[in-house]
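R.M. (postdoc): so does anyone remember the format we settled on? I'll just put the structure tokens first.
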């Protein structure tokens, strides 16, 4: 089985909008536990690729598999989220009027029939899970704080925590450090490095210093005009003539 150890597998994917090929014969795979950085100029197809993975957009042709045999092109967005793919858009979307703890509580995978009693008395294991996630995202000290009062970076970490409550196998993150301070950016890098292995991550990012921090020995994929232009270590792609041309030629 050629897909062994692969969490995400796109093969010859095409997306055509009114005759325009936004995704052009895109083939890409991500290993279980991998942290993959995706870079590329505006219009390269990064958002459209994530839309395909999450079922928001259907490919005109090609295949997209999650794990060994989950065909993403046949599932709804909800089914894909339930299968274990979490997506974080660029802007933070937390429940501003609720506390950090309540935000994580609301994000918890729960049997809807027991939902009304959750707020009243949280079962021990559920509180433990929230505690774990608070620790992971570095917000333990802020658990009672109203989410609306958090810094931009803290809101982003909270939203990542909300995704983690769903126990996703694959996390898609769109420009997670945009608007963050340098200190927040560095902490986010540490967070991602701590998540890889346990989760698989696909991070779309324009901040090259951040990409260098999280890519380390991992792979960076450069998208351009809907296809993979280059793939390799940060050093390899930075020294790739075609990549230099695309970035300097803008
Ligand atoms: P990126 O996220 O890398 O900036 P996108 O995936 O947003 O790139 O866009 C890829 C290309 O597809 C762009 O040229 C964009 O204008 C085009 N595109 C994206 N969505 C649509 C749409 N719904 N209809 C028509 N063209 C689209």
């Amino acid at each position: 089985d050629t897909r062994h150890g692969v969490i995400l597998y796109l093969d010859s994917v095409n997306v055509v909008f009114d005759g325009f090929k936004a995704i052009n014969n895109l083939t890409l795979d991500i290993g279980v536990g991998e942290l993959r950085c995706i870079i590329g100029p505006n219009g390269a197809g990064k958002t459209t690729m994530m839309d395909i993975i999450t079922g928001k957009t259907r490919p005109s042709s090609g295949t997209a598999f999650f794990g060994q045999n989950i065909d993403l092109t046949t599932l709804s967005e909800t089914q894909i989220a339930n299968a274990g793919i979490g997506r974080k858009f660029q802007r933070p979307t937390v429940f501003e009027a609720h506390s950090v703890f309540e935000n994580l509580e609301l994000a918890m995978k729960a049997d809807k029939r027991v939902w009304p009693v959750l707020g009243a008395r949280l079962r021990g294991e559920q509180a433990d899970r929230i505690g774990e996630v608070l620790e992971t995202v570095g917000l333990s000290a802020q658990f009672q704080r109203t989410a609306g009062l958090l810094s931009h970076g803290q809101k982003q970490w909270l939203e990542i925590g909300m995704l983690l409550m769903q126990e996703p196998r694959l996390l898609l993150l769109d420009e997670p450090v945009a608007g963050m301070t340098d200190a927040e950016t560095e902490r986010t890098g540490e967070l991602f490095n701590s998540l890889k292995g346990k989760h698989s991550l696909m991070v779309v990012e324009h901040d090259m210093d951040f990409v260098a921090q999280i890519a380390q020995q991992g792979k960076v994929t450069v998208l351009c005009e809907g296809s993979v232009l280059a793939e390799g270590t940060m050093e390899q792609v930075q020294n790739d003539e075609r990549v230099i041309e695309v970035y300097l030629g803008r």
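R.M.: ...and that's the designed sequence above, right after the tokens. Also worth knowing: The chain has one domain: 6-248. The pocket of adenosine-5'-diphosphate is lined by residues 17, 20, 22, 40, 42-48 (CB under 6 Å).
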